[in-house]
């Protein structure tokens, strides 16, 4: 099965957008090809190009694995935060849950996800309220975590309060992660990059 997955591994997309282009061959592992025992795993990897990608539920430890630390660690440590906006964010994050959909293969995810983690750390966000879902290039997981979530581009950061979506940042922030988060969490009008 690993040989099949290696053969089916796709090349890196320049943009991490919806891949509904005509004549696109699905080169990602299908739900049927991933063994049933991956359904409950955390930080599960599957072959991808000359390395691996995370697929399914993950956490910070997964992003710090050898295959991903070369972009996660410097992206985290080198990010310069807007400390004034961060102070305004701190009280607004207390009753919020966040779900991140991202692809370890995606340059936009590799850029934004470490920055997002640093912002949450500096805001003393309770990481137990954070769900990280890593997807294939087709924005899917074997477990269907993306079902009914309208994930067309990654990364997608979704903010919830009382289980109701407050808003989302899709692929890249409009102003900055901190300012976009503040707009969403403070109830200001906010449209992500792909909002109609």
Automatic annotation (TrEMBL):
Domain Thioredoxin, first and last residues per copy: 59-190
Source organism superkingdom: Bacteria
Annotated InterPro entries: Thioredoxin-like_sf, Thioredoxin_domain
Protein name: Thioredoxin family protein
Organism: Aequorivita aurantiaca
Lineage: Bacteria, Pseudomonadati, Bacteroidota, Flavobacteriia, Flavobacteriales
């Amino acid at each position: 099965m690993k040989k099949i997955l290696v053969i089916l591994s796709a090349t890196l997309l320049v943009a991490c957008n919806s891949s509904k282009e005509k004549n696109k061959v699905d080169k990602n592992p299908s739900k049927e090809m991933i063994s049933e025992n991956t359904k409950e795993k955390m930080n599960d990897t599957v072959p991808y190009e000359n390395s691996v990608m995370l697929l399914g539920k993950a956490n910070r430890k997964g992003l710090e694995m050898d295959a991903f630390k070369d972009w996660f660690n410097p992206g985290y440590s080198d990010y310069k935060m807007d400390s004034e906006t961060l102070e305004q964010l701190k009280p607004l994050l207390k009753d919020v849950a966040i779900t991140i959909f991202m692809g370890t293969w995606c340059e936009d995810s590799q850029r934004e996800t470490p920055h997002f983690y640093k912002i949450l750390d500096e805001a003393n966000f309770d990481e137990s309220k954070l769900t990280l879902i890593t997807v294939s290039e087709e924005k899917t997981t074997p477990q269907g975590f993306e079902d009914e979530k309208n994930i067309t581009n990654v990364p997608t950061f979704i903010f919830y309060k009382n289980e109701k979506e407050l808003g989302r940042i899709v692929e890249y922030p409009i102003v900055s992660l901190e300012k976009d988060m503040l707009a969403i969490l403070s109830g200001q009008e906010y449209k992500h990059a792909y909002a109609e």
